[in-house]
Design goal:
Elements: H1 3-36
Keywords: Membrane, Transmembrane, Transmembrane helix
């Protein structure tokens, strides 16, 4: 088998490996974003208490 016969095989293998890594990176970033609630529509409110706490009336 010469190099000319293997050239399409190299292209197919390269494309498959490239697509595999793109899919792997997409899954990793998707899971990280899902874990950290980045870009979600149902973002949970973290701080529900008001920041002005006037329980201490010393004046």
């Amino acid at each position: 088998m010469s190099t000319d016969e293997l050239f399409p095989l190299y292209i197919v293998i390269s494309v498959v490996v490239f697509l595999f890594f793109m899919f792997f990176l997409f899954i990793q970033l998707y899971l990280k974003a899902k874990k950290e609630n980045i870009g979600g529509c149902c973002k949970a409110e973290v701080d529900l208490t008001p920041k002005n706490n006037n329980d201490d009336h010393r004046s």
